[in-house]
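Our consortium's second objective concerns turning raw sequence data into structural hypotheses that experimental partners can test. To show how far this objective has progressed, the report includes one record in full. It was chosen at random from the queue rather than selected for favorable results. The single chain below, 355 residues long, was entered without modification.
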Amino acid sequence: MYSLKELPLQVIAFRRRGGGIKGLLVFPYVHPGPFGEVGCSNLPFRIARRIKDTNNVMVFHTTSTHNENCSGEDDIEKIANAVSNSLKVMKFYDTGGPVHRYSGKISARCQVLGDTLILSLIPDVTGFDDVSIETGMKLMRKLKSSRIRNVVVIDSHNNFNIDYKILRDIDNDTMKGIRECIKDMSRNKLSVGFSRIEYGSGSTGPMGVQTLVIKTDKTYAYILVDGNNIKSGLREKVLESLKGMVDDAEIYSTDNHIVNINLKDLNPIGNKDDEERLMDAIKESLSRAMDDIEEVEIGTHTTKVLVKVGGKGYMEKVSEIVNKMVKRLKFSILIVIISFIISILIFSLSFLLIG
């Protein structure tokens, strides 16, 4: 069911001025599914626990679909090793630019740090659920330049709708809009702060709520909640509640499928949450990250990892296997029930005959 495929992996490291890694952003172009602990599910935690350089590890959802679900532990070990190796070859910079946004057919949030563009695709105007790997690779190719050597593409995955489909291309107007966003050449000294709150609920995974605050000319927040998408409308409530704390914020989900107990279990963040409690946790996480701010340097490395992935038709194959298992289980349960009833009848009949 699996085949070998070479997929991108990008790592952003923030290094303290006195030395030592303050935090890592990891962008594996594999998909954190399909459900439970199967395949790549629980990917953020399984990567973070392997990283020894820092406790501040944020694993973002990139442009990947269920076709890029990997086979499990061996592949995740390869990814973690590639993260560690990336730290050895990075070139570091000490400045970063502002956040700019584009809103057209597709919404985008752009920030250039060092020689790296962090591009977040947001499904608020045109909804989508996952972005194809081909679309991500296209954006990387078209947006690279002499000053932007690395292009990181995030699927923000923050507006759940059961009818949304995979985003398979970027229109020309959106591409032009993104290019306008990254024309700004202004740069300032770079400072960052991290935090993590182990927020537990029925729709979030073990990494809880993580926040990265980046300070250049102003302060910008990247809030990452460990779960599979965000209930429609909740993103707007969260961003409204954060006004005045930072100049610009965005909330992301990791797309962690550990919160889905089966293929049909649609469980976005907010689905099983007290919204006020969740927003309080997010605000607390942001406040802690603000208190953690210090000057840093940024380095990025883009590499590739050879992993086993499900490929085209993976979900259909998994669904078929699961359905067969369910049918067999139902049949087995039926046999047990019938056997139990027959046993009771035999016992009762024997008791009556003896009597």
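The partners drew two points from this record. Helices lie at 43-48, 73-86, 133-143, 172-181, 234-241, 275-291, 314-354. The mean pLDDT is 91. Both points have been shared with the crystallography group to help prioritize constructs.
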